[in-house]
Design goal:
The complex is a heterodimer of chains A (380) and B (373). Chain A has helices at 30-44, 49-66, 70-78, 80-83, 90-102, 106-119, 124-136, 140-150, 156-169, 173-186, 192-208, 212-223, 230-242, 246-253, 260-273, 277-295, 301-312, 315-328, 332-344, 352-361, 366-378, and one strand at 19-22. Chain A is an all-alpha fold. In chain A, helix 6 (106-119) packs antiparallel against helix 7 (124-136), helix 7 runs antiparallel to helix 8 (140-150) and helix 14 (246-253) packs antiparallel against helix 15. The longest helix of chain A is centred in the last third of the chain and has 19 residues, at 277-295. Helices cover 51% and strands 23% of the residues of chain B. In chain B, a hairpin with a 2-residue loop joins strand 9 and strand 10 (147-153). The chains are: A mainly alpha (380), B alpha+beta (373). Chains A and B meet through strand 1, helix 2, helix 3, helix 5 and helix 7 of A and helix 1, strand 1, helix 2, strand 3 and helix 3 of B. Strand 1 of chain A pairs antiparallel with strand 3 of chain B, so a sheet runs across the interface.
């Protein structure tokens, strides 16, 4: 009946005990209990900014861990009394910026963050998010200045991590790797989340230096911490795909079909192996991208470009999506898919901006550089 | 610690849309006074809103969904308001099913809604999860006759109106025709302009005086020429503006229309142009056409039936005009020799029209409110 959900007709399950859905957070979990309590507190007093901020923050963290945009909506709902205010309290303003950047409303987010750091130059949260947005926009001098502002108001791992992230994107991966691994060794009391983050970054930096062996050591150390982290899984799966080890990807991700980004990597691996499940997973991804298009989302384009290029063989569409995505996001992986799609189409001119970005940033990643060289060789 | 977490989270952001966001799928079919609906809502969303996992094991079973069927129906239907012709169409659930979408299991609720009469326009007010998740969207598929339409509901676009009559070519044509009649009927400025030009049709100018005309025929032809010229002129500009060939600011157009009424009325009291009033009708008719186009724009032109709507609206305007003319002409002809007509209606009426239109001019040109036309 609905084009978005092209599947069998609705049905009445035969068995009352049939499990239809598994909730990501069990009602008895400590997180669920805390959320429940905060929700009740806020319902009793919706104007209580402290409770609203705490709830909003918790939901936002959950969105990151589970990769589920619903939680961003819940975070926004908690802030409702302050959401449309011209001049909300500082902390509500920063939280509003965080939620806005999630929906890629970068300019609205940056406006709020500008006001926030002007009002409170020691607001580490606001400076961090400015750095993050400037990185997505490939404005490296601005990102560096934001990291600089964190000095003295943030712990060492935070400051070094911020700077190392900028450095490793702009051709200084070796320095970045050294600084971040030293900082990680010095900070004894880093949480598991923070260690996973730092180790994933270190793996990425190693890859940019062309050191796959060291990257794998970092990845395995991060995986050993047993933190539920989709970014780590996605980065590790990409590494395995680049190393042509698809069977390990299938083992790693076979239970992650709910997550679009991980399902994409699973399907990529299955296709390389010629596995039977590939078709079913490609169909599921098609349905999800169709739904996103139906609701008018443009947040998936990088993933969708990769899907079109490698799973559907739709090179032209892939290039169009990669170009559209590049207008919004300019991180190394955005450049990579743009270059690869342009190469597939034999169209070096289309990749002009990504090639210029490599020159400007000095980005080192060998995969990206190889693709760029092939494109330049094609140019007349 | 918080900032590191922020940096950490911020780097997840591009990947954080790993899941499909929250959407519901609403399929409606309108027939006669009935709406048949099917609404697919994610079990996860319903669990968050009404609580489905009774035993708290993190699994939602069919038994648990069944136990909450009434809650689901009450919760969802309270957040979907269907209205037709200004009256609510109360809805009630008829069937509860399950469907597997690409991102998990959905509760499928079938329902019917009964409107008071034949549904011409269906207004839908969608507020499901608006308070819980402002990023939730409702994806509508609306069927009527052979036509299907889609729309997206979000808190910013919670209320949307669908003209079902547009699906049928004939009803659509008649609808726009009716709007045209209605507009000339309530568009006092057009009526007054036309009347100002028609008032002298039953009189003839002898030197500096107006005298009653001898025969009906010349009066009729005079009116015919004026109305035809006005019609041709405003049809031209209405079409050009509706097809976006020309576009003028509405304040300018509305002010110019007021000027045209003032001038036409004053011309009766202090005659400058007579005999060739059809040329005046033509010239100013061009301006009035832009005014009609503004109305048509507000109504919204259906894509795919643009020409049809345009012709329908235009014909409606003509029908309205003809009705006014056919009421005016016999009465004026009958009264033409009387003092009542020549002094009170003709001179007094023209002056009154000029004054009213003068006030409109000030209102429209300076964007102020003096009287409500």
């Amino acid at each position: 009946m609905l084009c978005a959900a092209a599947h069998a007709a609705p049905y009445v399950p035969g068995d009352d005990a049939a499990v239809l859905e598994r909730l990501p957070v069990r009602p008895g979990d400590p997180i669920a209990r805390e959320l429940l309590r905060l929700r009740a507190d806020l319902a009793a007093d919706p104007q209580n900014l402290d409770v609203a901020l705490r709830l909003s923050q918790r939901y936002f963290e959950l969105a990151g861990a589970e990769g589920d945009p619903r939680y961003v909506g819940y975070a926004e709902a908690a802030l409702k009394p302050w959401w449309s205010l011209e001049d909300p309290p500082l902390e509500a303003r920063v939280m509003r910026a965080i939620v806005n950047q999630y929906s890629h409303n970068f300019s609205a987010a940056m406006r709020d963050l500008d006001v926030a750091v002007r009002a409170d130059s020691k607001n580490a949260l606001a400076w961090s998010w400015r750095a993050a947005i400037h990185m997505v926009q490939a404005d490296y001098p601005a990102a560096r200045a934001d990291c600089e502002a964190l000095r003295g108001i943030e712990n060492e791992l935070g400051v070094v991590g911020c700077m190392a992230y900028v450095d490793s994107t702009t051709g200084r991966a070796a320095n970045a790797h050294r600084a971040l691994s030293e900082a990680l060794a010095r900070v004894a009391r880093a949480s598991a989340d923070e260690k996973v983050w730092a180790l994933t970054r270190l793996a990425e930096m190693s890859l940019r230096q062309g050191d796959t062996k060291r990257a794998e050591v970092h990845f395995r150390a991060a995986l050993g911490l047993r933190v539920r982290d989709q970014f780590l899984l996605a980065a590790w799966a990409d590494f395995l795909l680049d190393q042509n080890r698809p069977s390990e990807v299938v083992t790693l991700l076979k239970d992650w079909v709910r997550s679009d980004i991980l399902l994409l990597r699973l399907a990529l691996a299955e296709k390389v192996m010629g596995a039977a499940a590939a078709d079913e997973h490609i169909q599921a991804l098609t349905a999800r991208f169709d739904s996103a298009a139906l609701r008018g989302d443009k947040l998936h384009q990088q993933e969708e470009a990769r899907f079109n290029l490698y799973l559907l063989g739709q090179k032209k569409k892939a290039l169009a999506l990669a170009l559209e995505n590049w207008k919004l996001q300019r991180e190394p992986r955005d450049a990579r898919i743009l270059l690869e799609a342009a190469l597939a189409m034999n169209d070096p001119a289309a990749a002009k901006e990504a090639l210029a970005w490599i020159n400007r940033s000095g980005h080192e990643d060998p995969e990206i550089r190889r693709t760029a060289e092939k494109l330049k060789a094609l140019a007349p | 610690m918080r900032a590191l977490l922020a940096v950490l989270l911020s780097l997840l952001a591009p990947l954080a849309l790993a899941h499909k966001p929250s959407d519901s799928y609403l399929a409606l079919r309108a027939e006669g006074a009935q709406v048949a609906g099917q609404w697919d809502i994610a079990l996860r969303d319903l669990d968050f809103a009404v609580g489905l996992d009774d035993n708290g094991d993190g699994n939602i079973t069919w038994g648990e969904v069944k136990a909450h069927r009434a809650d689901i129906a009450a919760y969802a239907l309270a957040r979907l308001r269907l209205t037709s012709g200004g009256a609510d169409c109360p809805a009630s659930a008829t069937e509860h099913l399950i469907d597997d979408h690409s991102d998990g299991a959905y509760a499928v609720m079938r329902f019917t809604a009964a409107c008071a009469g034949e549904i011409r326009t269906l207004e839908i007010n969608y507020s499901l999860f608006a308070d819980l998740d402002p990023q939730h969207k409702g994806l509508l598929r609306l069927e009527h006759g052979e036509g299907t339409r889609t729309a997206i509901f979000s808190p910013e676009r919670a209320k949307q109106k669908f003209k079902l009559a547009e699906f049928s070519v004939l009803t659509q044509f008649l609808d726009y025709g009716r709007e045209g009649v209605w507009h000339i009927w309530i568009g006092f400025d057009h009526i007054l302009f036309l009347l100002s030009l028609l008032l002298p049709a039953v009189l003839a100018r002898r030197g500096a005086r107006w005298e009653a005309i001898g025969k009906f025929r010349p009066a009729f032809w005079d009116v015919f020429k004026i109305v035809t010229a006005f019609t041709v002129a405003h049809s031209i500009t209405l079409s050009l503006a509706a097809l976006s060939v020309i576009s003028l600011p509405s304040r300018l157009v509305e002010s110019a229309i007021a000027v045209s009424v003032v001038l036409a009325a004053l011309n009766n009291v202090f005659p400058l142009v007579h005999g060739r009033r059809w040329m005046v009708a033509f010239a100013f008719g061009l301006i009035h056409g832009f005014g009609f186009a503004g109305v048509l724009r507000d109504l919204g032109l259906p894509q795919g039936a643009l020409l049809l709507a345009l012709v329908g609206f235009n014909l409606g305007v003509e029908v309205g005009q003809l009705a006014i003319v056919s009421a005016f002409l016999p009465a004026a002809y009958w009264l033409r020799a009387s003092w009542f007509y020549r002094r009170l209606v003709f001179i007094g009426g023209s002056l009154a029209i000029a004054v009213v239109a003068g006030i409109w001019l000030i209102e429209r040109a300076f964007n102020m409110k003096i009287i409500t036309p």
